């Protein structure tokens, strides 16, 4: 069958879907991934077809005002303020993404669409084409539960009523941002008016199946989820089979004890030079060697001592088994890679789902207590690095969980769920 995967966002919003696409391809299906153009070569290198989406949203996040918006989301009032403030700039980009998603569908001629919530037009396109649609998430962000609040809301212990209300609030924010684009597209394509806009439902009110690409061992499935929502296990890409490290990185790894990895993906805040200086000083004072990933976010590095090396992009699946601990921002993908490698973490969350994962891995005793980015100091980072490199309980728990996660077959389970929705001859 032909499968169209629509996703959008940073690398953490793309890499798991590439892994899912590779699994579908291994199962004999033809897969097209449509996402930001900056990831086109990554998708082609994975052996998948690529369909264009613009890079506008990511360029907006790269700009100083975008970085500031991410850095300042410390409470829900700031989230609402920033969301409303960015709507005028995001709106035209979202409208373009709608058109590009439709163009990708016409190019692919899919038998099913698998989509990330940022590709919100997917259910409408599927209705137009008369094919099934399935939402794929790597975070527990949309399906309501009374067991815990939505991850971007204040984690208040007010009980099930608050927890469920938090999902309604987040869904209302999404509706405020994108519903008008979906309504306009439906009207232009002669589809009947939808009962309401809800990413968990088709226009006629029937539920959309949702699969989650993380592990039950990390976050168990809530008892009150509907049958249409499931957890498959992590989706890991085969991105390291042909990887060959630079001579400098190979020599560094062989020259001494296992280092600590430090990387924040696209997150560096508004002062990346200050962040780099904190990290370098903390690694030296903790008495450990370090691998510092400059990343998409452009961490600014002037000079490094011989005990620390800077790298650009190295596959986590290759590098993390070769380090003794991981300091990161708590993005879903990096968190998954550290867990699967069996390495203890220090999470320095910036925004979004990152505080959620930071608290979660700490509660599993596989990480130090998270340090919010705005409270990051050299002293706090030194203490956390020492904890994950000397506390044997954390080290052992991380290794044990990693061994179990490496036995999971998350991609295969997700592929089976997708196949079950399509009646093939």
From TrEMBL:
Residue ranges annotated for the Erythromycin biosynthesis protein CIII-like C-terminal domain, each copy included: 300-403
Any Gene Ontology biological process: vancomycin biosynthetic process
Organism for this UniProt entry: Aliidiomarina shirensis
Residue ranges of domain Glycosyltransferase family 28 N-terminal in the record: 3-140
Protein name per its UniProtKB record: UDP-glucose--sterol glucosyltransferase
Keyword annotations: Transferase
One Pfam family named in its UniProt record: Glyco_transf_28
Cited InterPro entries: EryCIII-like_C, Glycosyltransferase_28, GlycoTrans_28_N, UDP_glucos_trans
Any one GO MF annotation of this record: UDP-glycosyltransferase activity
